[in-house]
Automatic annotation (TrEMBL):
It comes from the Bacteria. This is Crotonase/enoyl-CoA hydratase family protein. Belongs to the enoyl-CoA hydratase/isomerase family. It comes from Pseudooceanicola spongiae. One of its GO terms (molecular function) is lyase activity. InterPro entries: ClpP/crotonase-like_dom_sf, Cyt_P450_CS, Enoyl-CoA_hydra/iso, Enoyl-CoA_hydra_C. The lineage of its organism: Bacteria, Pseudomonadati, Pseudomonadota, Alphaproteobacteria, Rhodobacterales. GO terms for biological process: fatty acid beta-oxidation. Keywords: Lyase. It holds the Pfam family ECH_1.
């Protein structure tokens, strides 16, 4: 069943087990206001409850132009802090949750748009995508988690360069910089992200949960702590009933083999 819901700024539909969530304020290039981020938050909670994976994309010519600057102009310092913390909460529900998230990026992926994209696990860009952090030019700083998430993806030196110089990075460069994992022809990002999400949705829930929640944490641990924690997660997942069923299916030749990308 395809259940499509449209709120003021967000479209939501189920494609099989995958939630397809669209940023839908194209006339303002999907700039994110306070109301908009709350709508994203509600869509995130719904996807966490009913989907096995989710895809985030932007309606119109761009993925997202970042923070709604018109709204930001009128804020006091403490309102700004609360606003930033709210973005952190909502994006954190994407980053550390029960399901994998994919983003389909095109056009501008700018400021808070890049911060939102940085909170998902897998980013697919089409060739029209470009990435920028114009906070320096606007007299502000990242506030949607970019100093943590985007910096960890591309590295502090590259992010510093983008913020100081206003540099725009195209999709191919973004792939080299580890900002995106896939680059596809124009107009094909949603299709590709849906394909990847549908594949991830068939994984064991416990494996997906471990990948999403353990890998980023382990990468911030010392080597010896990371290896120690890995052993427990490894044993816990491998001894689950789901793993037993899947391992048996492979041994009985009922499960697909790993694909050789070079095979015809
Ligand atoms: C906006 C916003 C916005 C567009 N807030 N209204 N983000 C930025 O600094 C990016 C600013 N935007 C742009 O550079 C360009 O709009 C784009 C390159 C993204 C797209 O260009 P284009 O030619 O397709 O659209 P446009 O004509 O510039 O914009 C269409 C309308 O959207 C226009 O309003 P209109 O009433 O004149 O039609 C724009 O004013 C409006 N618009 N972007 C508000 N961001 C949690 S901290 C995060 C900090 C940040 O995100 S800083 C980065 C902010």
């Amino acid at each position: 069943m395809t259940d499509t819901t449209t709120t003021t700024f967000v479209t939501y539909e189920m494609r099989g087990d995958v939630a397809l969530i669209g940023l839908n304020r194209p006339e303002k290039r999907n700039a994110i206001s306070d109301r908009f981020v709350e709508e994203i938050g509600r869509a995130v909670e719904r996807a966490r409850a009913e989907a096995k994976a989710a895809v985030l994309f932007g309606h119109g010519k761009h993925f997202c132009a970042g923070l709604d600057l018109a709204e930001h102009v009128r804020k006091t310092p403490i309102e700004g802090v609360h606003g930033s913390r709210r973005w952190h909460e909502i994006f954190g529900r994407i980053e550390f949750g029960p399901i994998p998230w994919f983003s389909a990026l095109h056009g501008a992926v700018v400021g808070g748009g890049l911060e939102l994209a940085s909170s998902v696990q897998v980013r697919v860009a089409d060739e029209t995508a470009f990435f920028a952090l114009p906070e320096g030019q606007r007299g502000i700083f990242v506030g949607g988690g970019g100093s943590v998430r985007s910096a960890r993806l591309m590295g502090v030196a590259r992010m510093t360069d983008m913020m100081l110089t206003g540099r725009s990075v195209d999709a191919r460069q973004a792939e080299v910089w580890n900002l995106v994992q896939y680059v596809v022809p124009a107009g094909q990002a949603v299709e590709k992200a849906l394909e990847l999400a549908a594949r991830a949705a068939t994984n064991a829930e416990l494996s997906n949960y471990s990948v999403i929640n353990a890998l980023p944490r382990i990468s911030e641990m010392s080597r010896s702590d990371g290896l120690f924690v890995e052993s427990f997660i490894s044993s816990f997942t491998a001894t689950s009933p789901e793993a037993e069923a899947r391992l048996t299916a492979f041994l009985e030749k009922r499960a697909p083999k790993v694909v050789d990308p070079g095979a015809r």
